[in-house]
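Tokens for chain A. Residues wanted.
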């Protein structure tokens, strides 16, 4: 029986090359997904998510965004992991991160078996970057899970020319309700932007860790994402 496969590859930039986790579907062909990490690196959870989308028929590439400061770092969700993750997030050059994601999107499009269209899917920090990647025109569709800070980047809203899906938790202690409201109001007249709020979910509800995971919300969001991808890729 054919199975999904995965490997680390290198993505080249003007600053050097960095690692990215490539997950291939059965048969090795399908639409592409740039999968954008949380603040914990391309850890086991993110690789599991990549493998899951590969099992759904997508070619998935998850870049290591912290490569300049801590290449291939994988952090846990304990106190030490959170401390280091916040340090890395605060030290991340958002301009260079966007350039790295553009390079990742280019590398994904050049990968054998990738279809004509690709999307980005990001979580937390990655959700914000998924929004920016879409606004930068690097992908054909985008998904943001609990993208903190998007409310402060609504000056880029007019640059968003591709379909975008956003997921938020109704009990998210990191993203205020007013922030989600401001995003929804800004895109209220846009046919391209779809926003879902899951009332019982907190921050990181898709992360399979007992401190954050909310199974029903994760399942609903995943279903909504798969429908969105099928309609737009």
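Reply:
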């Amino acid at each position: 029986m054919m199975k999904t496969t995965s490997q680390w590859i290198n993505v080249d930039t003007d600053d050097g090359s960095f690692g990215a986790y490539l997950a291939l579907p059965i048969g090795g062909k399908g639409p592409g997904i740039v999968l954008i990490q949380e603040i914990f690196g391309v850890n086991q959870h993110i690789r599991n998510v990549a493998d899951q989308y590969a099992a759904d028929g997508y070619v998935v590439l998850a870049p290591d965004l912290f490569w300049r400061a801590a290449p291939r770092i994988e952090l846990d969700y304990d106190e030490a992991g959170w401390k280091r993750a916040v340090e890395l997030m605060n030290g991340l050059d958002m301009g260079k991160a966007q350039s790295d994601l553009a390079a990742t999107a280019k590398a994904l499009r050049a990968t054998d078996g990738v279809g004509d269209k690709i999307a980005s899917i990001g979580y937390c920090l990655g959700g914000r970057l998924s929004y920016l990647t879409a606004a930068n025109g690097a992908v054909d569709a985008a998904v943001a899970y609990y993208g903190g800070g998007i409310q402060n980047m609504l000056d880029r809203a007019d640059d968003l020319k591709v379909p975008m899906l956003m997921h938020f938790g109704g009990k998210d202690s990191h993203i205020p309700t007013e922030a989600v409201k401001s995003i929804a109001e800004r895109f209220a007249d846009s046919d391209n932007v779809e926003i879902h709020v899951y009332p019982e979910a907190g921050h990181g509800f898709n992360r399979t860790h007992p401190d954050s995971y909310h199974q029903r919300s994760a399942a609903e969001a995943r279903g909504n994402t798969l429908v969105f991808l099928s309609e737009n890729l």
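The mean pLDDT is 96. The helical segments are 44-55, 79-91, 94-109, 125-135, 177-186, 215-232.
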